[in-house]
Amino acid sequence: MTVNSHRVRSTRKTQIFNHAGCFIEGWYWAIPSSKLKAGQVKPVTLLGRELAIYRGTDGKVVALDAYCPHMGAHLAEGKVEGCRIRCFFHNWQFDEQGKCIDTPSLGKPVLVSVRTWPTAEQYGMVWVWTGETPQQPVPFVPELQDEECNIAFGSRFVKNCHPNVLLINAIDAHHFNTVHNLPLQIVFEKRELNQNAITFSNTTRGGEESFLIKLLRPFYKNAVTYSMCYWYGSTGTVTLGPDFLHFHIMFALRLIEDGKTEGQTIMITRKRSGLGGWIFNRIVLWLTQQVGNYFAKGDSQVFQTIKFDLKTPTPADRSILQFIEHVEGQKPLLWGTWESAKD
Ligand code: FES
Ligand SMILES: [Fe+2]
């Protein structure tokens, strides 16, 4: 394989990838579902935009811009009434579309609205779509599409680099050997699921020289399972493990100020029935966490100091270049305003 010098040059001048001022229009994690009970409202700052997110008594989650169009009170100071929210300050009330439907001092509602944003719940999280109408699904593990799942939250963390850069770790083929001591050469094959999602799956089975690989081989019919699925350049799901039991870890990331990352890891497994299934899943989720910890421990420090600049790519960096290209092909929004970065 030869390194394409033209592409290398172009990926060094990215418009979207690893830029502190923009992110991809998409679904982003906002708040754990369990932290938002029916009738509660919470303030959430998401990608630089301040929101009030509430759960109506019907269980539905509504996300709206934080500040009241009357005088700017934060709506998370207000009160949920049925499926609506009432501002604390002068009691204007807004429905789930953000429309003002009660202005007590005037007797009839003022014709104003607060902007609302599409929401969804998946893997124990409330997700917000950062545009008008969702174009793609909430991030999911490809193997578990449409499956009911059990989850466990791992760590919540802040890293001193952009989410795009942090996610690259999972497809940095060579570092599995240099950092994580994996006795297997990883070679990825990419596949685009849609405009906003791409998977990289390992294609190798390993040679005869490693005792560990020989030991593991009976558990893999084909290649050693390791695949990463990226959504909106910001959330990734890793799938790995023997054929009889796959582990799934989601890294739900979002861009915060100064080009840093705030993230939450989520362990995921297919729901299994009965008490036995529940106990089995607790063990699987615990094991998944140990696998995640092992990989996180090896290189968490490097992401506090890295100044990412792929000046000299090698063939082993091919997937990274493909990921950069994939990110560059998506719709960028400005951090803070969520307006199009292209206008
Ligand atoms: S500031 Fe919200 S009703 Fe006055
Ligand atoms: Fe790593």
TrEMBL record:
Keyword terms, alphabetized: 2Fe-2S, Dioxygenase, Iron, Iron-sulfur, Metal-binding, Oxidoreductase
Iron-sulfur listed as a keyword: yes
Gene Ontology terms, MF aspect: 2 iron, 2 sulfur cluster binding; dioxygenase activity; metal ion binding; monooxygenase activity; oxidoreductase activity, acting on paired donors, with incorporation or reduction of molecular oxygen
Gene3D superfamilies linked: Rieske [2Fe-2S] iron-sulphur domain
PROSITE patterns listed in its UniProt record: RIESKE
Record flagged with keyword Transferase: no
Pfam families: Rieske (PF00355)
Organism superkingdom: Bacteria
UniProt domain Rieske: residue ranges: 28-128
This protein's name: Ring-hydroxylating dioxygenase, large terminal subunit
